[in-house]
Amino acid sequence: MNFPVYNRGLVYHKVSEQFEWGLTTTTPKQFKAQMQKLKQLGFSFSTIRDHDPGQQEVLVTFDDGYASIKRYAAPALAEVGGVGTVFAITDYVGQKNSWDYFPEHKQVQHMSWRDLRELHDQGWEIGSHGRSHRRMINMDLADIRSELVTSKKQIEDQIGQEVVTFCPPFNAWNSDLLHLIEEAGYWRIAISYPLTGLPSWSGEFVPRLGVYLHDMLPLFLAKIMVNPLAPVAVLQQQLINLAGDGKIVENWLNPTGK
Questions:
Q1: Where do the structural domains in the chain lie, given as residue ranges?
Q2: What is the pLDDT along the chain (258 residues), one digit of tens a residue?
Q3: Helices (DSSP H) in 69-170: which residue ranges?
Q4: Beta bridge mates, 191
């Protein structure tokens, strides 16, 4: 490889043929080309749980656990000998994403428990994205613990393996939530760039950059390797974090703050 690697974590949401005006869909053709390019460049693929920092591994992760991931992304990863990490929203397993804001009135199906078990049996990691995809730093203590502990147990009961990785919805977290995540028994937390002011804790932060519909191959590669477009990739993620952390939608739905 001609450029040093600065990031190994990629995050997708939907890999689907269905067009959406939002940013969070990648087409199956795009995804397959991206995975094949990484393979050609000498990368291998790992789950977060099994990642070996000494290897040239990419962590391909999927927030929300949509059914399209099993249909399109899993076969494409299998073609290059890869596996991924899915973060499931446990109250919506097997249901449509009625929790989401969708201006086109399109609801999308989440994977079933059977789907998640099948991916787990293929070597994928199933992590927690909470129970309800709510912005947890705004919740009371009992609800936060329910999101963390109950979702962890639900997944463990279904796949028969300890769940060690948590992904905060909307990338919204703080030091108080980090303490509760650790208390619940997780020791890895998947977060998004930019990485500023990270507190120390006994677990591990897993940095990630999102992949979106408009990401052409040069910008996609800049999410992993140092090149002139790498700062653009990080800035893009920062802007998406600001737009998508829940604050804008919450204020729109509840402008009085009541």
A1: 9-253
A2: 567 999 999 999 999 988 777 778 899 999 999 999 999 999 999 999 999 999 999 999 999 999 999 999 999 999 999 999 999 999 999 999 988 876 556 789 999 999 999 999 999 999 999 999 999 998 999 999 999 999 999 999 999 999 999 999 999 999 999 999 999 999 999 999 878 778 888 899 999 999 998 899 999 999 999 999 999 898 888 888 777 654 444 444 444 443
A3: 74-79, 113-121, 141-145, 151-159
A4: 207
Supply 25's token pair. 């869909």
Q: Which amino acid is at 51?
A: H
Q: How many CA atoms lie within 13 A of 107 on its CB side?
A: 10
Superfamily of domain 9-253: Glycoside hydrolase/deacetylase (3.20.20.370)
Which residue's entry shows tokens 């739905």?
A: 253
State residue 139 phi and psi, 5-degree precision: -95, 160
83 token code pair? 């596996």
Find the helix or strand (DSSP H, E) in which 151 lies: helix 151-159
| The amino acid at 135 | R
Three-class secondary structure of residue 110 per DSSP: strand
Sign of torsion over alpha carbons 116, 111, 66, 172: negative
Residues 71, 233: Cα–Cα separation, whole Å: 28
The angle at the Cα of 123, spanning 149 to 45, to the nearest 5 degrees, equals 105
For residues 92 and 104, what is the distance between their CA atoms, to the nearest angstrom?
20
